[in-house]
Amino acid sequence: MYSNYNYSSTAALPNVSDPEKAYAQITRQQYMDYVQNYRSFEEEMLEKAQTDTSLIDQAREDSAAAQGLMTGVANRNAARYGVQLTPAQQQEQARQLQRASTLGSVDAINNSRIAQSEANQALLADLVNIGQGVNRSSLNQLSSAANNHTQRENAYRQASAASKAQTYSTIGSLGAAAIFAFAL
Amino acid sequence: MSSKPKKADYQPSEAEKASAAVAMAEQRYFKEKYDPLLQQVRDQSRSDDRQKTLRGRANADTMQTLAGGANYDAAASGRSGGDMAQAYQGQMAQANTAAKDIQNKQQLGVLGTARGQAADAQSGMAQAASMGASQALSRAAANQQVREAKTAALGQIGTSLIMQGAKNMSTKAPVMDEGVQRLDAEGNPMFTSGSFFSPVDQQGNKVTGFRDRLGASGFTNTNPFGSN
Description:
By secondary structure, chain A is mostly helical. Among the domains of chain A are: 78 residues; 31 residues. Helices cover 85% and strands 2% of the residues of chain A. At the A-B interface, strand 2, helix 1, helix 2, helix 3 and helix 4 of A face helix 1, helix 3 and helix 4 of B.
């Protein structure tokens, strides 16, 4: 997995011969693992935050089932107590149940719309917050890497310049000594 | 000549290597032990197990509250069914909303952890690399300073050698023959001159050997008014 270090045993520290390469490898591997394990998951969440209607859909399903369920409950209660309803009473009961179910359905679906909107907004806000954190972290990391690189480059250039200056200075003093000594 | 700065002097410090080794070990341990757990939580958060649980609980609460007090009047009037229908739908909607909230928070937790841990590991390693880099740069600068001092010393020795060689070559003494200076074919007085590495003394003899050279150089002359 990481070719730049090896383990002598599972408990020992890895021997990192080149931290910069190891850092590059682990950073790259970390990103690849994220892409493999969490990228699709994150994209699902982003999609869900913008298009999810599962609460509203579920409320519609529940509303459709509610009237049938409650009709069964009313019938079983009537049978349990030996109630014999007249046709007029049965019609009134059905109308009353339908009316209540419809009102309940409207109320539940409307509430679900609000709840869905709030849930999606909250999810989106949190996702954006995570995304902003990732962005900030990435920029800081890039800045650090760029600073290190610039620092090394500057130091190397300065050392090279100092070396050249010293070389030319030595050549100059040797040349001057030769000129004076031999009166060239 | 001054040697160029060596790339080898810009290698990471021991502290940097150790820091990187620890970071690497911890990162590997995390990958082996914690990352699978996080992936399990990720998969759990995709399931609708919690929604089923909450809906079942809401359904039971509704039935226990409204159907538990069943009586003949309620059964005969048929009005209780409407109340139960409204309560059932309201409770189910609340259960769905609560389950969605739990699922969203769990998924956000998984994603935030995955993203956050990656960012922490990277920034930690970047900081260690930065600390090690500054130490490596200091060491490289010191080594470069030593190399430049050596070069300067070589330059001084070279300069002294040239000056002394020129001085040696400028020494000369008349060639004597029985107390009289010898003349050449054109009648000019003859002189013997020193070479680059060996001067001649006043008698025209080449100065060789450590002791004679020390005496000829005047280095050991302590007379403030001139040579002995």
